[in-house]
Amino acid sequence: MDSIKNIYKIGRGPSSSHTMAPQNAATLFKSKHPNAHKYSVELYGSLALTGKGHLTDKVILETLGAEKTKIIFNYDEVFKYHPNAMKFKAYDEDGNRIDKWLVFSVGGGELKELNEPRDVSLKEIYFERNMAEILEYCNDDNINLVEYIDKHENLNEYLEYVWRVMESTIIKGLDTTGVLPGKLQVKRKANEFYEQYKKKQMREAYLYATALAVSEENASGGMVVTAPTCGASGVLPAVLCYAKNIYNKTDKEIIDALKVAGLIGLLAKCNASISGAEVGCQGEVGVACSMAAAAYAYLLGATNEQIEYAAEIALEHHLGLTCDPVNGEVQIPCIERNAIASTKAIDAAKYALLTDGKHYISLDYVFSTMKETGLDLSFKYKETSKGGLAKKEGVN
Ligand code: SF4
Q1: Which residue, by CA, sits nearest to atom 4 of ligand 1?
Q2: Are 224 and 355 contained in the same domain?
Q3: How far is the CA of 386 from the centre of ligand 1 (A)?
Q4: Helix (H) or strand (E) holding 98
Q5: Burial of 175 from C-beta contacts in 10 A (0-12 / 13-18 / 19+)
Q6: What domain range is 210 assigned to?
Q7: What are the CB-based long-range contacts (under 8 Å, 24+) for 140-145?
Q8: Measured in angstroms, how far is the CA atom of residue 105 from the centroid of ligand 1?
Q9: Pocket of ligand 1 (CB under 6 A)
Q10: Which CATH number covers residue 47?
Q11: In this structure, are strands 110-113 and 97-107 parallel, antiparallel, or unpaired?
């Protein structure tokens, strides 16, 4: 498996697959052809259908230069490899095509070329491929999950930076009022919830406020950390901030909890998918909830088995969750969904702690079920805004 670092990418919202990855792809293509006279970029599948709401066209035009770039929205063609395809072309001043590049945004800000293996990274760090193998390794060596991760890669410095960004996004989001950009004119609520927390000392209000803060920053194109995606970036920081500020967990403990959460995200990415365009929101908010549940269980002192159970509960009860953002904007249902998932993560952890960690459905089985369910989901519910909640217009 790949590095946990790749689960936590730092960049601007609102979407890791529709904003971050296309911007990175455009930057790479431009660096290859800096003197091209013209560029064209064809967007396919979900990138075509919800690209405008997710600002895909805007970031590509900003990166390649609006005056020399044409964007084509191809609504009809969908690649089997992954629905989020982009075809970049560069032309010289005589109109001859110099190069073309077909690239896919496969979730969490990651780029892949056609038929590039999805589950195996060339830079393999973890040889265990699933949670069962990891638990066996830990049992054999009598170590916990953090010790397992530390044996494979040194993440402390990077995760300290990740945590600083998460905290600063929360502070900014809690401090900002007004209306989010976009047609829906959605009012920011984080600050309001935070004021209620201060008045009533209601812990849930603090948790909701912090999740809303990150998700609202994401929706307004602010700086966030994918966990595992931009659309689902509010859940984990909210749960960790709650643990730190309500239950006095130290930054060192939070960094270790980020490792555990990252491992769950990595397993989901390698064994299923973290792409809403591929498996619906179960792969985004569902996985974020699973990561946060594992992190919180770790902070509560759970065994490896209880952590696995917490992650499993959190994901199992998101199975089948559709991705149907209204008007193609990462706002409704996404922002509220992050807040609700943060409480579910804490509940899943507490539930698992009341058991000995033994249970019927394993986390690995839930990953394969999520993948199967996601493939069976109609394309209407996979980030295309063609069905479900997305059919309701002008909601606030
Ligand atoms: S509904 Fe879920 S998967 Fe879809 S854009 Fe919103 S957060 Fe992402």
Answers
A1: 323
A2: yes
A3: 13
A4: strand 97-107
A5: exposed
A6: 131-391
A7: 144/303, 144/304, 145/259, 145/260, 145/263, 145/298, 145/304, 145/307
A8: 15
A9: 231-232, 276, 281, 284-285, 323, 325, 330, 333-334, 383
A10: 3.30.1330.90
A11: antiparallel
What is the predicted pLDDT for the residue at 11? Answer: 92
Same domain, 232 and 92: no
Residue 104 sits in the same domain as residue 177? no
Q: Tell me the best of 18, 216, 218, 330 to mutate to test the pocket of ligand 1, counting ligand atoms within 8 Å of each CB and taking the most.
A: 330
* Structural domain total, the chain: 2
Largest Cα–Cα separation, the chain = 70
Residues 6+ apart with CB under 8 A from 350: 300
Closest alpha carbon to 286 in 296, 276, 295 = 276
Residue 162 has phi, psi (to 5 degrees) of -55, -45
Measure 334 CA to ligand 1 centroid, in angstroms. 5
Q: Is 19 found in the same domain as 74?
A: yes
**Given the CA of residue 276, which atom of ligand 1 is nearest to it?**
3
Residue nearest to atom 2 of ligand 1 (CA): 281
The model's pLDDT over 247-304, given as tens digits with 9 standing for 90+, comes to 999 999 999 999 999 999 999 999 999 999 999 999 999 999 999 999 999 999 999 9
Kindly report whether the global pTM for this prediction surpasses the value 0.85: yes
Place of tokens 């919800």: 50
Q: Which residue has the tokens 């702690």?
A: 353
Percent helix, percent strand, percent coil in the chain, to nearest 5? 55, 10, 35
Q: Using CA atoms, how far apart are residues 30 and 92, in angstroms rounded to an integer?
A: 13
Strand partners for 86: 43, 103
For atom 1 of ligand 1, which residue has the closest CA?
Answer: 323
Question: Which two tokens mark 115?
Answer: 């038929």
200 and 331 share one domain: yes
Q: Both 208 and 69 in a single domain?
A: no
